[in-house]
């Protein structure tokens, strides 16, 4: 796979995340736009939210790869223009090697961004939301490793978001 290509699963996860966060009226607007694009005559006014979501998925599945990428570009722009940042603290982009432990596994990966209250770990390990995580890492400003505990609050194709139980000293 080339660097600029997305896997079908990544595309579906991203599109589903966006669609799931839309109101019913926004879903219906998207559906109308997709139907116009596909020259469909189905009236969506009588469909419930699940049916609208299913119909949108059907239309997207029938698109060519190029059109899926165009749709993804448009949806990313829309998402950026409507996103309200829920973070309480500013994040710092980084790449810190760290050791992670759960009650079921032990692994190493990289912290890709960090703030006083949380961090994002780039990983392919199949972890679940609400899972407790023990983290050990050495930031560049400290010779003493930091040991901290958090809870997984978000998962996407690139990794996991962790809300920390305590703040990180020096961040």
What does this 3D model show about the protein?
This protein has 171 residues and is α+β, with helices and mostly antiparallel strands. The protein folds into two domains: 8-82; 92-164, Beta Barrel (Thrombin, subunit H), CATH 2.40.10. It has helices spanning 8-20, 24-38, 49-61, 65-82, and strands at 92-101, 106-114, 118-122, 132-137, 146-156, 159-164. A six-stranded antiparallel β-barrel has the order 1-2-3-6-5-4. The protein is elongated and about 60 Å long. 12% of the residues are buried. Residues 1-5 and 39-44 have low confidence and may be disordered.
* Biggest sheet details: 6 strands, antiparallel, barrel
State the helix count. 4
List the uncertain runs: 1-5, 39-44
Tell me the β content: 25-35%
Radius of gyration: 20 Å
Helix residue percentage: 25-40%
Biggest sheet strand line-up: 1-2-3-6-5-4
Order of helices and strands: HHHHEEEEEE
Question: Taking all residues together, what is the mean pLDDT?
Answer: 78
| Annotation, overall tally of beta strands | 6
General shape: elongated
Q: How many structural domains in the coordinates?
A: 2
Question: How far is it from the N-terminal to the C-terminal residue, by CA?
Answer: 37 Å
Structural class: alpha+beta
SSE layout and pairing:
Elements: H1 8-20, H2 24-38, H3 49-61, H4 65-82, E1 92-101, E2 106-114, E3 118-122, E4 132-137, E5 146-156, E6 159-164
Antiparallel strand pairs: 1-2, 1-4, 2-3, 3-6, 4-5, 5-6
């Amino acid at each position: 796979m080339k660097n600029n290509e997305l896997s079908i699963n990544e595309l579906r996860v991203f599109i589903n995340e966006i669609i799931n966060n839309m109101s019913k009226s926004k879903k219906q607007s998207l559906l109308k736009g997709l139907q116009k694009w596909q020259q469909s005559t189905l009236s969506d006014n009588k469909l419930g939210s699940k049916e609208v979501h299913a119909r949108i998925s059907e239309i997207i599945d029938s698109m060519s790869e190029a059109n899926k990428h165009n749709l993804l570009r448009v949806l990313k722009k829309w998402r950026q223009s409507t996103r309200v940042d829920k973070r309480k603290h500013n994040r710092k982009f980084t790449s810190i090697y760290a050791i992670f432990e759960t009650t079921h596994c032990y692994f190493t990966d990289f912290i890709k961004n960090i703030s006083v209250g949380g961090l994002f770990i780039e990983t392919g390990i199949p972890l679940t939301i609400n899972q407790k995580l023990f983290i050990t890492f050495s930031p560049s400003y400290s010779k003493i490793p930091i040991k901290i505990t958090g809870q997984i609050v978000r998962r996407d194709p690139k990794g996991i978001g962790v809300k920390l139980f305590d703040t990180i000293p020096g961040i």
